[in-house]
Design goal:
The chain contains 11 helices and 2 strands. The chain has a two-stranded antiparallel ribbon. 47% of the residues are buried.
Length: 287
């Protein structure tokens, strides 16, 4: 197998994408799929194989970093996995039954809505903080508590649990079908609806996504490995040889940056990213 330097630029690009994904909790496939299909002109089946392999390594790296910082709510993550994993497998197996353009259009509109709601929630939270309501409630009536490795203690309550389970199931189905959706819906539920502190929300979301991606993508990997020809395997190898090392690096940088960011900046940035990604996905569907 002959490897080339043509795609060397993917190494720094992958570092940047993984850093953004790990700092915000957004699935890296949201960025990698358009990159592989539009910029590299890869066939969808080839792009999916490269994107899944890249995302799996990137999320695993980020998961390790967040685990070291003890920011993952494993109890919450375990509950969400009970709904996300089965639906991710179902989505993976039924992906061919739905036109990709329909799924991408639905998701694009949905993620724009989520981004808007995240921003509106942030504005409402700021108004309530002026009166001291949120801080007092968190200190006196919280249901969950998590102490990070640096000694910081986070108080929060997981609200509307049935809705969270529903979002985990729907997000898992989208993850299996088009490789995106679970992280974004988890972000909306935990940050906008329940106001879980961003470090805990991002870390727990990444934990849920990496396990779901691993199990749901087994079918994709097997199908690609058994049906792809030598040329397709060569093209994937010439992509992942640069993207996988890049996301491994970015997976360690993202959590460090997230720890230094103001939570308000994180929330506003995530909301803007969601809207921009949604608009971009709509543009790719139209074109």
């Amino acid at each position: 197998m002959e490897l080339t330097l043509t795609n060397l630029y993917l190494f720094p690009v992958s570092i940047l994408i993984a850093t953004i994904a790990m700092a915000s909790g957004i699935g890296g496939a949201v960025f990698f799929s358009p990159l592989f299909i539009l910029a590299l002109k890869l066939e969808p089946s080839i792009a999916i194989g490269a994107a899944l392999a890249t995302e799996l390594f990137g999320f695993s790296s980020g998961l390790y970093a967040y685990a070291r910082r003890r920011l993952i709510d494993y109890k919450l993550g375990g509950v969400l996995l009970m709904f996300s994993v089965p639906m991710a497998v179902v989505g993976s197996l039924s992906a061919d039954l739905f036109p990709a353009v329909v799924l991408k259009s639905i998701f694009a509109v949905g993620i724009i809505f989520i981004g808007t709601q995240l921003y509106l929630s942030y504005r409402q939270e700021k108004r309530e903080e002026i009166d001291g309501d949120i801080r007092e409630q968190a200190e006196t009536s919280h249901e969950s508590q998590l102490t990070a490795a640096d000694g910081t203690t986070y108080h929060y309550t997981i609200c509307e649990k049935p809705q969270g389970m529903f979002f985990a199931a729907i997000g898992g189905a989208f993850l299996g079908m088009i490789s995106v959706g679970l992280a974004e819906l988890q972000e909306y539920q935990l940050v906008a609806r329940c106001r879980v502190p961003s470090p805990v929300a991002v870390a727990t979301s990444i934990f849920v996504v990496v396990i779901s991606v691993l199990l749901a993508s087994l079918g994709h990997f097997y199908s690609f490995a058994t049906s792809a020809d030598a040329e397709s395997m060569q093209r994937v190898a010439n992509v992942v040889i640069y993207t996988i090392p890049g996301v491994l690096v970015g997976g360690q940088i993202g959590p460090l940056i997230q720890a230094k960011l103001n939570p308000d900046v994180v929330k506003v940035t995530i909301s803007m990213l969601f809207v921009m990604v949604g608009i971009f996905m709509l543009a790719t569907v139209v074109n």
